[in-house]
Please model this.
Amino acid sequence: MNLFHFTTRRLVSQVYCGLKPASSKKQRTCFEMARPSSSMADFREVFAKAKHIAIITGAGVSAESGVPTFRGAGGYWRKWQAQELATPEAFARNPSRVWEFYHYRRELMMSKHPNPAHTAIAECEARLSKQGRSVVVITQNIDELHRKAGTKHLLEIHGSLFKTRCTSCGTVTANHKSPICPALDGKGAPDPDAEDSQIPVENLPRCEECNGLLRPHVVWFGETLDSDILTEVEKELEICDLCLVVGTSSIVYPAAMFAPQVSARGVAVAEFNMQSTPATDRFRFHFSGPCGTTLPPALARHETEIIS
Model:
């Protein structure tokens, strides 16, 4: 078993059991390196030679599209933070309230559009694929804006707002209905004074296969990542020869360890973010500023590219 596979699997079991990732002197040593460069010219040289590019994205890439993060001081829906609603326990206690929260988020996302960062990534993937090169997007976001922008090779490690999973038979289905069920029509107002609708469970979204109660197909707090998707992520990060980290805080595990482990095997990692993160010093490049401003020139066609 290789180092990446072992470390990631161990992190998954630790993090979602409420443990912090173990620290080791050996890991700290292999991550020590010079301060990252902000030279776009140097990055572009590396980009021009890369054959397998992995792009890891977080909430920051969608912030410029007006997508709320529900984190921090202002991250409330009504009087609850996401951490209080996005759990299996919250859904078991009050599925109506949790579905109102996700209905609100779904309806909000239907009005949002990809920004220049999403577009730059999708256009880069399409262009490089014609040159026999690959781009994979590994996203922590559940908003599907990458998909809207045209990204094809997409790994959504935390699931999607627009997929449901049956709590009875386990069927996962894409669902872009608005509203997702009649009982949620007009519900989900985020106002702190809004009352719970207390929708009867039989009127909440139901499975078309077995009529079981549906839940959002997202990874909630306390749940593990999908092992099949995690395996795909591992494979992509093992073969990539350039890695970009875009709009992520690098504090949510296990995703926070993906790029540092790529860097540890000598592969160039470039961070695009509004500010430095706990992982910044482990990377070769860091570009500060809005992703929609910094990413398009970084991923634009290089003069050495041959387009047939």
